[in-house]
Amino acid sequence: MAALTRTRRDDGFTLVELLISMALLSVLITVVGGIIVSSLQADRTIREVTTSTTDGQLVVNAIEQTVRNSTAISVVPNADESSVFAVVRTTVGGSARCVAWFFDTQAQAIFQRDSSSAISAPTPGAVGSEWREVSGGIVPDDDATGTPYPVLQADGSRGLVVRFAVEGGTRASTLFVTSVTGRGPQSNVSPQCY
């Protein structure tokens, strides 16, 4: 009679195989998790830099466009020696208007206002509702000794230098420096803006 032989089936994994696969899986999860965390941090940094760059460009573009069309300009440092007030007389659509910007160190913001009559400087930290905030997170740029440059500074009788940094959240600030000169004929009459 033929002997019946029983064959052994290897169903499942051995304990050693399970431990090795778990170790490999944990290494893989650690590497992939690190990549995901790094990607999220890079994304946050890019968003912060993009936001600060966009905010700064909006401020610079608004000031440049108005000053280029101006016929008169005045820049006055405020009593706190950090805030700065600039006003221009400009012609928009054939009619003269007064447009002013105010850098408030307490609010760390640049505000804008336009009017058909003269505009006076607001009080730092108490800018009224007639002023519109152009951008927040504005800080003066410092020189090598730590002395801040004026955010708004007269450049001759018709020009304006704008120099500031926009805070980039947890990262470095974005610096903006530009100079613009009025191209309209020099005049500060009807309305007299300052």
Q: How would you characterize the overall build of this protein?
A:
The longest helix has 54 residues, at 15-68. This protein has a five-stranded antiparallel β-sheet with strand order 1-2-3-4-5, covered by helices on one side. Strands 6, 7, 8 and 9 form a four-stranded antiparallel β-sheet that branches. The protein has one helix and nine strands; from the N terminus they run αβββββββββ. By secondary structure, it is α+β, with helices and mostly antiparallel strands. It has one domain (38-181). The chain has one helix at 15-68; strands at residues 70-77, 84-92, 95-104, 109-115, 132-136, 138-139, 152-155, 159-168, 171-181. The mean pLDDT is 85.
Mean pLDDT: 85
Contiguous low-pLDDT stretches (5 residues minimum) are none
Beta-strand residue percentage: 25-35%
Main sheet strand line-up = 1-2-3-4-5
| Beta strands, count | 9
Structural class of the secondary structure composition?
alpha+beta
What is the helix content? 25-40%
Shape: rod-shaped
Count of alpha and pi helical runs: 1
Rg for CA atoms: 31 Å
> What about the largest sheet?
5 strands, antiparallel
Number of domains: 1
